[in-house]
Design a protein that fits this description.
This protein is α+β, with helices and mostly antiparallel strands. The protein has 2 domains: about 60 residues, Arc Repressor Mutant, subunit A (Orthogonal Bundle); about 180 residues, GAF domain (Beta-Lactamase, 2-Layer Sandwich). About 40% of the residues lie in helices and about 20% in strands. It contains 10 helices and 8 strands. The strands form 2 sheets. It has a 6-stranded antiparallel beta sheet, with helices on both faces. Strand 1 and strand 2 form a beta hairpin. Helix 1 packs across helix 3 and helix 2 crosses helix 3.
Length: about 250
């Protein structure tokens, strides 16, 4: 089962179609083993194939759908995300940390307008484009915020021995500097990341804690630097995020 899931997880936005050789490389299997798993997954309906290449079939959404239908966190936060989006005309998400990445488990996107009024584009920002999006934690406001909620020793272990890929010219790839940014987020209990994951994307995150004080997720808002400066984002939107986190705490 573990090997089959490894093959299934080999598909992503960079590799939407895989043959046995590519799947073997990405899943750490022999080509023969990868091909057996690909054929089994196709037989079960999780993959489609043209005989040489394989790609994900709609049936894989059953797995995500089961989580979204049964997990408490997405159901609890969704009304709050909807309210914040309607109030500010900005997109909001709830995000959890999983290994080296963050995963979006709930989101609500405003289609037009922005906080403070004035013209804006209807373009939906690529960041957080859909539920289940996985983003590198080191380059995101939510990733840094959730790391800041961990003990410093755990952050050192997380940083040790793992590369920090450069995604844009602004991505922080220096471990000591990233650790300092995480420390700052811990002190301020919020985190801003500007154009580090994607050019033209400015994000602000706060921790979402349960009644025991454990950070179970991060709430964030996304905009464009030309629409809202980091200073204005902190002034106008941060209080809304913090109040939402306080309200949700009693429900977690």
């Amino acid at each position: 089962m573990a090997k089959g899931l490894a093959v299934l997880e080999s598909f992503d936005t960079e590799r939407q179609r895989l043959n046995a050789t590519l799947a073997a490389e990405r899943a750490g299997l022999t080509r023969a083993a990868a091909r057996r798993h690909l054929l089994t997954l196709a037989h079960l309906g999780y993959l489609e194939s043209d005989g040489q290449y394989f790609w994900l079939a709609p049936k894989v959404l059953r797995l995500a759908g089961s989580y979204l239908a049964s997990a408490r966190l997405p159901r609890v936060v969704q009304p709050t995300l909807n309210r914040l989006a309607a109030q500010t005309q900005l997109p909001f998400s709830a995000v959890v940390l999983e290994g080296r990445e963050v995963v979006i488990v709930a989101r609500s996107t405003a289609q037009s307008g922005h906080a403070g009024g004035g013209p804006t584009s209807d373009r939906v920002l690529a960041y957080g484009l859909h539920l289940g999006s996985r983003l590198p934690a080191h380059a995101t406001s939510t990733g840094r915020m959730l790391l800041a909620c961990r003990p410093k020793s755990a952050v050192r272990d997380w940083l040790r021995g793992h590369p920090l890929p450069r995604l844009t010219a602004y991505t922080q790839t220096d471990a000591p500097a990233l650790r300092a940014a995480i420390d700052q987020a811990r002190t301020e209990d919020c985190c801003i990341a500007s154009e580090e994951h994607e050019l033209g994307v400015l994000a602000l995150a706060v921790p979402l804690r349960d009644l025991q004080g454990h950070a179970v997720a991060a709430l964030n808002v996304v905009t464009a630097p030309q629409r809202l400066s980091p200073e204005r984002l902190k002034r106008d939107v941060l209080p809304l995020l913090q109040e939402a986190a306080r309200e949700l705490r009693a429900l977690l």
